[in-house]
Amino acid sequence: MTLPTLSKYPALNNLERQAGVPKAYAVIGVAALYFFLIIFNLGGQLLTNFAGFVIPGYYSLAALFTDTKDDDTQWLTYWVVFAFFSVVESFFNIVYWFPFYFVFKFVFLLWLSLPMFRGAEIIFRSFLAPTLSRYFKGGSSSANLRSKADAAVNKSD
User: Fold this and answer.
1) Which of the residues in the chain have pLDDT under 70?
2) Are 59 and 76 in contact (CB under 8 A)?
3) Given phi > 0 = left and psi -120 to 50 = alpha, else beta, which region is 43?
4) Residue 64 and residue 77: Cα distance in Å, rounded?
5) What are residue 118's phi and psi, to 5 degrees?
6) Residue 1's pLDDT is what?
7) Where do the TM regions start and end (predicted)?
8) CA dihedral in degrees (108, 94, 132, 60; nearest 10)?
9) SS in 3 state form for the chain?
10) Of 60, 69, 65, which is closest to residue 115 (Cα–Cα)?
11) Which are the contacts of 55, defined by CB distance < 8 A and separation ≥ 6?
12) Domain-by-domain residue ranges, the chain?
């Protein structure tokens, strides 16, 4: 895995030239401030939701302009998992029960969204697909087997 170089971003090159601050220091400073605000819950909900929308939104739009279907599937999977957790989160007042909730949510959203981890795909394949596919035609084979087993048990009762 190679990290992108900061030199390919014109805005950072201009900042370095005008302010005299190295690009790496500027990026690290902004990231540290962002994380500091999340840790102390100064706009934690807004900042975590912003991270949950901006990175995936960018990659989703980029995927729409490619000819391959794999990246479209990856980002559709992300949005399904993100929506599921947003709905679950809205039912529970987790902020009051879980200290530093937004820090964990921020890290979790990065894990879900960054292409190098493909966390949304892991959550979808291990939990959501087996649970929800029985409600959709042509679901996964494990869900189909489960529904057939449930039907056989119900038929014998």
Assistant:
1) 1-4, 138-157
2) no
3) left
4) 14
5) 55, 45
6) 46
7) 21-40, 46-64, 76-94, 100-117
8) -40
9) CCCCCHHHCHHHHHHHHHHCCCHHHHHHHHHHHHHHHHHCCCCHHHHHHHHHHHHHHHHHHHHHCCCCCHHHHHHHHHHHHHHHHHHHHHHCCHHHHCCCHHHHHHHHHHHHHCCCCCHHHHHHHHHHHHHHHHHCCCCCHHHHHHHHHHHHHHHHC
10) 60
11) 110, 113, 114
12) 40-156
Q: What is the pTM of this model?
A: 0.75
The residue whose two tokens read 């005299």 is: 20
Interior angle at CA 141, CA 135 and CA 146, nearest 5: 65
Structure tokens at 124: 């979808």
Nearest to residue 75, comparing CAs of 113, 37, 49, 38?
Answer: 113
How many Cα neighbours within 13 Å face the side chain of 12? 14
Encoding tokens for residue 58?
Answer: 């960018």
Paired tokens of 111 = 């894990």
